[in-house]
């Protein structure tokens, strides 16, 4: 087993738990649909967090040829998925509680938006400082240098301004960034290297 495979195993488990949390919650919403009060903003946030989980896992492939790891890079590649798992756990309503999505969003959006800020800031700092990539070798995905600050600013706007349109526009923008990120993150796999 290579060092990459070893590090990726733990990160992949964490991402799988996060994705499973969101999918299970969506299934619960369908099963208990008579009790659900839908709202656009929290549904968009669920989509955002789902796409971020997939992108996070896909971006990890960038490290497949790394042979030497530092303690900081290993910690970062575990901490970021943990932050994203917590985001997934907080973005979905409690399975046994109220399924009023607007109320759940009102009570919790600052937590999952805050985790978005933290995860994006940690990833950006790690990449920018060279902890995850040697910037001279051109391995750092350029898209991340645009996407991470934009994700952070958008999430900060969602935390600061509680107006309904901001609460819809922020996750909609994050979802668009995430979908562009999906294609960008998939390129190394599609191109075969």
- As a whole number of angstroms, the C-alpha radius of gyration is 17 Å
Poorly predicted tracts of residues:
none
Q: What percentage of amino acids are in beta strands? A: under 5%
Number of helices: 6
> Structural class given helices, strands, pairing?
mainly alpha
Main sheet makeup: none
Shape: globular
Q: Distance between termini?
A: 19 Å
Total strands: the figure is: 0
What key attributes describe this structure?
globular; mainly alpha; 0% strand; 6 helices; 193 residues
What are the SSEs and their pairings?
Elements: H1 3-31, H2 40-59, H3 71-91, H4 101-128, H5 142-160, H6 164-190
Helix pairs in contact: 1-2, 1-3, 2-3, 2-4, 2-6, 3-4, 4-5, 5-6
């Amino acid at each position: 087993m290579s060092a990459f495979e070893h590090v990726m195993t733990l990160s992949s488990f964490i991402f799988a738990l996060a994705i499973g949390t969101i999918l299970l919650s969506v299934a619960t919403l369908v099963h208990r649909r008579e009790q659900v009060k839908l709202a656009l903003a929290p549904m968009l946030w669920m989509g955002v967090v789902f796409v971020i989980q997939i992108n996070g896992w896909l971006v990890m492939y960038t490290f497949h040829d790394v042979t030497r790891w530092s303690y900081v890079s290993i910690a970062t590649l575990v901490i970021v998925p943990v932050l994203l798992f917590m985001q997934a756990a907080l973005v979905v309503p409690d399975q046994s509680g109220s399924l009023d999505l607007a109320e759940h969003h009102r009570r919790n959006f600052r937590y999952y938006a805050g985790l978005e800020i933290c995860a994006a800031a940690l990833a950006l700092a790690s990449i920018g400082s060279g902890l995850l990539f040697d910037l001279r070798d051109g391995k750092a995905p350029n898209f991340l240098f645009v996407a991470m600050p934009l994700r952070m600013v958008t999430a900060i706007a969602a935390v600061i301004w509680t107006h309904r349109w901001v609460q819809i526009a922020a996750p909609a923008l994050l979802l668009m960034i995430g979908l562009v990120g999906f294609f960008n993150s998939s390129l190394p796999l599609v191109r075969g290297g």
